[in-house]
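User: For a teaching handout, I'd like to show students what a predicted protein-ligand complex looks like in token form. I'll give you the sequence and the SMILES for nicotinamide-adenine-dinucleotide. Please answer with just the structure.
Assistant: Understood, here is the input followed by the structure.
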Amino acid sequence: MIKEKKIAVLGLGYVGLPLAVGLCSSYKTIGFDISLDRVSQLLKGIDKTLEVKETKLKNCLKRKLIVTNNFKDLKNCNIFIATVPTPITESCEPDLKPLKDVCKTISKLLKKRDIVVFESTVYPGATEEICAPILEKNDKNLKSGKDFFLGYSPERVNPGDKIHTIDKIDKVISGQNKMVEKVLFEIYSRLTKGKVFLAKNIKVAEASKVIENSQRDINIAFINEVAKICNKLNISVYDVLNASSTKWNFLKFKPGLVGGHCIGVDPYYLAHKSSKLKIDPKVILSGRKTNNEMPTFIAKRIDEKLKRKSKVLFLGLTFKEDVPDLRNSKSFEIISFLKNKQHTIKLHDPYVKSDNLQLVNLKKIKNNSFDAFILAVPHKFYLQRMDFIKNFLKSDGIFFDIKGKVSAKRDKNFNYWSL
Ligand SMILES: NC(=O)c1ccc[n+]([C@@H]2O[C@H](COP(=O)([O-])OP(=O)(O)OC[C@H]3O[C@@H](n4cnc5c(N)ncnc54)[C@H](O)[C@@H]3O)[C@@H](O)[C@H]2O)c1
């Protein structure tokens, strides 16, 4: 059993940074990231993901947390937790490069009895089939399960969600043997105030995570299909959902754009493994297909309602509300469709700072200057300022509320559209 735990967190993004910050109050913790930009910002107390507040980060840096770009600073660590991205390739296959790279880094640091834990979302089997052989390519000829040990603990944080924070989410843990299970139980129960679930083995824990997100994707896909049907029926899907939700066991999913790097990505990991096992992942991939078609479906409905060459204010560019994350955001598909139809699209997002996107300043917009608004991502920022923003719309302008967020407050003067 490891006496003094020194923990390395490798990959300080949306998942790794809050984890390192949470761990450093109980353990010596070193956060490592290959991005020099990310490390230098963090050292100044700046977290551009907005998951950790500046004062908290600075306090941690003053006390126990070390943040570094030099992997050699991890040489005295005995527990390595990898929180690197697991994206997909252009052909929607798992892109395991960051995962393989981090294994190569850890392999150079491994000592006898060290524990290597993966938090990145993978398909079942990846930790033992992909990561272990790379870790075993070490100078000391250390073998997995004999000299060093593996664990897997999927992350479930929901960026932008200030209620279900890392300390309030039950943590699934798994280990190669009882010793790893015990160590992970101790570490993670401090982080989550005891809410830890021990999965039967690593493969079970890996599968549990990837099916959570795949299930969500499939459920949203069903409601997106319902939204298309309702559109043809000339009824609002939200009105239908309000009625159906009164049944005790109706699942409350909403239609919408599925972007980001979890829900729209993880099902491909499950589908990949499924295909390898010669099981056709029909349901998983059909959900993906339906959700991938939604931006074009929505853009077409909007274009049908717009006059030729309309001037449109597009509100919300990130992949979901109240986060600064632009990865795999479906807003851009709607924007390029409408631009191709010769509409003029002005962009705004309070969370995005970019010179390339040429965002408008809301304070400089004149009243009655737009033919339409598209509220694509209903950040709280917009919902709290609707009375101000609606002045920019011409009297016959149309308000497209993709997620139906302001429908309850529908203004009679608005020409309003939602799914
Ligand atoms: N963001 C989420 O909401 C969320 C939730 C649950 C699970 N996950 C999973 O957690 C994992 C991490 O996701 P994320 O959103 O934190 O990613 P991210 O892109 O925000 O952060 C990953 C960090 O890892 C760094 N990195 C990349 N390769 C590295 C390497 N070889 N060594 C060290 N650092 C490296 C990057 O520079 C980046 O800062 C993914 O598998 C993701 O699917 C994410």
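For the handout, you might add this sentence: The chain has two domains: 6-202, 234-417.
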